[in-house]
C-alpha cells in the first residue's frame, strides 16, 4: 500500500492556537537576535552613530527580556535556543554535522549576556554633568551595597540595581581601566544568565559584596587621585 505525498503541500507547525502563539513568540525572539547581531556589527563598523545605536540596542534588549519571559520552559537558555535554530545565508552550504548546526551570532550573544549597550559597557567619555554623575553613581553604589547587606539575593531584585550602577560607572573617562568596572560587568553577566526567581548563593553574595566594596573604594581613589579621570 503506497501513500502519495505532495512536496508542495504546506507543513503546519501547530494544530492549536496555543501552539501557534508559541511558534510566533519563538519567531519573534529569533528575529530580535538577528536584528541585534546586525546592529552590533553596524556599530563596530561605524555604519551608525552611538546616538543611533544606543536607543536601538536598549529597545532590542528590552524586547528580548520580554520575549524570554513569554517562552518560559521552551527556551532554557539563549545558548540552547541558538543551537536549536541557526540563521545561515542562502549562499552558505548547510553543515552536515549536527553539532555545528547553530545560530552564528556571537555579537548578539555577547550583548545579550552583558545586558547593556556597548556604549555603556565601553564608554569612556565624561561631560559637563560630571558632578551630577558622581552623586548618582555614589548613590547607586550605596543602594546596591545596602541591598546586599539586607540579604537581597534574588536576580530580579539585584539586576536592576547593578545595571544602574554599571551604567553610571561607565560614564567616567578612564573607567574602562578600573579593575572594579570589569568585575561589575562580570557580575552583570552572571545575573543575566540566571532566571528571575533564582538567588545568589551565600558564597556568591559574599564575593559580590567584597567586589563591590573594592570597586566603590577604587572609584573614589580614581576621582581624588586623578583629576583627569572625570574631566
From TrEMBL:
One of its GO terms (biological process) is protein transport to vacuole involved in ubiquitin-dependent protein catabolic process via the multivesicular body sorting pathway. Keywords: Endosome, Protein transport, Transport. Pfam families: VPS28. The keyword Signal does not apply. Residues 1-122 form the VPS28 N-terminal domain. Component of the ESCRT-I complex (endosomal sorting complex required for transport I), a regulator of vesicular trafficking process. This is Vacuolar protein sorting-associated protein 28. It comes from Panaeolus cyanescens. The lineage of its organism: Eukaryota, Fungi, Dikarya, Basidiomycota, Agaricomycotina.
Amino acid at each position: 500500500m503506497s501513500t502519495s505525498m505532495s512536496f508542495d503541500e504546506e507543513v503546519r507547525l501547530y494544530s492549536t492556537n496555543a501552539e501557534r502563539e508559541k511558534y510566533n513568540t519563538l519567531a519573534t525572539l529569533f528575529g530580535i537576535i538577528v536584528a541585534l547581531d546586525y546592529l552590533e556589527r553596524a556599530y563596530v563598523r561605524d555604519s551608525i552613530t552611538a546616538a543611533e545605536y544606543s536607543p536601538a540596542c536598549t529597545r532590542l534588549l528590552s524586547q528580548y527580556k520580554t520575549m524570554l519571559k513569554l517562552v518560559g520552559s521552551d527556551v532554557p537558555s539563549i545558548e540552547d535556543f541558538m543551537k536549536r535554530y541557526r540563521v545561515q545565508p542562502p549562499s552558505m552550504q548547510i553543515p552536515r554535522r549536527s553539532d555545528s548546526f547553530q545560530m552564528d551570532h556571537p555579537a548578539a550573544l555577547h550583548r545579550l549576556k552583558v545586558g547593556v549597550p556597548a556604549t555603556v559597557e565601553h564608554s569612556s567619555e565624561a561631560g559637563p554633568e560630571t558632578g551630577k554623575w558622581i552623586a548618582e553613581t555614589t548613590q547607586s553604589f550605596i543602594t546596591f551595597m545596602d541591598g546586599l547587606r539586607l540579604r537581597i539575593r534574588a536576580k530580579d531584585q539585584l539586576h536592576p540595581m547593578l545595571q544602574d550602577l554599571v551604567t553610571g560607572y561607565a560614564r567616567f573617562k578612564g573607567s574602562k581601566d578600573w579593575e572594579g568596572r570589569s568585575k561589575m560587568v562580570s557580575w552583570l553577566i552572571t545575573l543575566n544568565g540566571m532566571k528571575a526567581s533564582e538567588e545568589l548563593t551565600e558564597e556568591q553574595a559574599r564575593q559580590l559584596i567584597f567586589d563591590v566594596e573594592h570597586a566603590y573604594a577604587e572609584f573614589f581613589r580614581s576621582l581624588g587621585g586623578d583629576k583627569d579621570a572625570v574631566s
